[in-house]
Design goal:
Blueprint (H helix, E strand, L loop, with lengths): L1 E6 L5 H13 L3 E6 L1 H6 L2 H8 L15 H8 L2 E7 L1 H8 L6 H8 L4 E5 L3 H5 L1 H12 L3 E2 L3 E4 L5 E5 L3 H11 L15 H8 L4 E7 L3 E4 L2 E3 L6 H12 L3 E7 L9 E6 L2 H13 L4 E4 L6 E3 L24 E3 L3 H7 L8 E8 L7 H12 L3 E6 L10 E7 L7 E7 H21 L5
The chain binds cytidine-5'-monophosphate (C5P).
Cytidine-5'-monophosphate binds next to α13 and β16.
Length: 431
């Protein structure tokens, strides 16, 4: 795909060189458009060498090619990293005083801005208003990461990692990887980039732990990576995201509200609280324990050393946990809000393959979308890449995505959600 990488004048411009590499190594044709100020931080030869293409620096070069219009018109994706407070202000007000702002005005493709600046500049009401205006118009603006800034100070304002910007950018144009097979009834990506804007979405992630005693628990191998990717992509698409996270060490994606839980019952309580806060979509990506020990023992369970008891072991009695997903589905009114997405970690066996088990689960759980993946000790859990089948009740065809990064899969899941939301809005409530 044709990518325009805009770079504005901040110290973080050097990180854009790494972002550029990620795009070129993935086979994309990138034209770098640095502002004059950016060129004071990283010079033209670096951009030219890394992109393997001429660098577009101003509206007065190669005028016969009308670069101020053409670059934006022809782009499949525009990414600006870092986007300074000044660049955000100029973009929000439709200024066209250099090649990059001209390009932003002529682009009709997805646009992702990755801000980086000092905390005071980011939190200034002028910047807040500019970001809100840009998001309202459909531009994806990442929240900056928090951490060490250029000087000795710390706070929100850091440019997110190049890998994160790259993933967020690809999620805006998932078809670019050729991973998607659209349904006959519509092209999910068509609605994808805009549909989540301003909606409250809830994602559960990670794996629950059911304590036995103060040091032991029953747990599972879920890392939380897929749920965190879903949260991050939803935030970059402008959703208000609540991430209910069970025992994951992953960094919280920028702009995401996290609620940490340990057990299935805590996870249920947190999801229900988030639902009550006008949730429109709930994605249950967490691996929730079906059973928990009936009793929690306040003191550590000890081995017996009594004569004749050396081989003895305690019996642990389990009780059922609630099926949170099924409960969410059962509790919905006639409006079927919120839209509910379930996950199915499946293994094929003699009674059927992954897809047939997943189809059964979709029917049993009654959710609107089921994301099925094949699991095993070395497949999916904790890995960066995954292969999923997306199943909906309204079609027998499953959409297969991957093997692909969990971010790309997250983009495909949100595309499906967008398509389902679109269908709902098109059908009158009584129809
Ligand atoms: O039935 P199974 O556990 O395979 O279903 C998986 C789906 O159901 C996941 O979306 C998971 O988050 C959800 N689940 C749940 N409550 C449980 C068990 C699973 O919500 N107790």
């Amino acid at each position: 795909m044709r990518v325009v990488l805009g770079v504005s004048g901040g110290i973080a411009a050097y990180k854009a060189a790494l972002l550029l590499r990620l795009f070129t190594e993935a086979g994309h044709a990138v034209t770098v458009v640095p502002t004059d100020a950016a060129l004071r931080f990283v010079g033209e030869p670096t951009w030219a060498a890394l992109s393997g293409r001429p660098v577009a620096t101003d509206v007065w070069s190669a005028v016969h090619e009308v670069p101020h219009v053409r670059l934006g018109q022809e782009a499949d994706l525009v990414v600006v990293a870092p986007a300074t407070a000044d660049l955000l202000a100029r973009a929000a007000h439709g200024q066209a005083d250099d090649l990059l702002t001209n390009t932003l005005l002529t682009a009709r493709c997805p646009v992702l801005l990755a801000p980086a600046m000092h905390t005071e500049m980011w939190s200034h009401p002028a910047t807040t208003a500019n970001v809100a205006l840009l998001r309202e118009r459909g531009v994806s603006v990442l929240d900056p990461a928090a951490g060490r800034l250029t000087g000795a100070d710390t706070g929100p304002g850091r440019l997110p990692d190049p890998e994160e910007i790259f993933a967020a950018a690809l999620a805006l144009v998932p078809d670019a990887e050729g991973q998607h097979t659209a349904y006959d009834g519509g092209t999910p990506a068509e609605h994808g980039a805009q549909a989540l804007r301003g909606r409250h979405v809830v994602v559960s992630a990670g794996g629950t732990r059911e304590p036995l005693d103060p040091v032991r628990f029953l747990g599972n191998r879920s890392s939380g990576k897929q749920g965190y990717a879903l949260a991050q992509v939803a935030a970059s698409r402008g959703a208000r995201v609540t991430l209910v996270s069970a025992n994951s060490d992953l960094p919280v994606p920028p702009g995401v509200d996290v609620v940490e839980v340990e057990t299935a019952l805590e996870l249920q309580e947190a999801v229900l609280a988030a639902r009550a806060d006008a949730a429109e979509v709930i994605v249950m990506a967490a691996a929730v324990a079906d059973f928990r020990p009936r009793d929690y023992l306040d003191a550590k369970i000890k081995k017996s050393h009594a004569p004749g008891q050396e081989d003895s072991a305690p019996t642990i009695e389990l009780v059922r946990n609630p099926d949170i997903l099924a409960g969410l589905v059962a509790d919905r009114g006639a409006d079927q809000v919120p839209l509910i997405v379930g996950f199915a970690a499946e293994t094929g066996d003699e009674s059927g393959d992954v897809l047939s088990h997943a189809r059964d689960k979709l029917t049993r759980k009654g959710c609107d979308l089921l994301v099925a993946n094949e699991v095993g000790r070395d497949v999916t859990f904790g890995k960066d890449d995954t292969l999923v089948h997306l199943l909906r009740p309204d079609t027998d065809a499953a959409r297969t995505v991957g093997p692909a990064s969990k971010n790309l899969v997250a983009g495909a899941v949100w595309d499906e959600v967008a398509d389902l939301l679109h269908l709902r809005s098109a059908v009158p409530a009584d129809g």
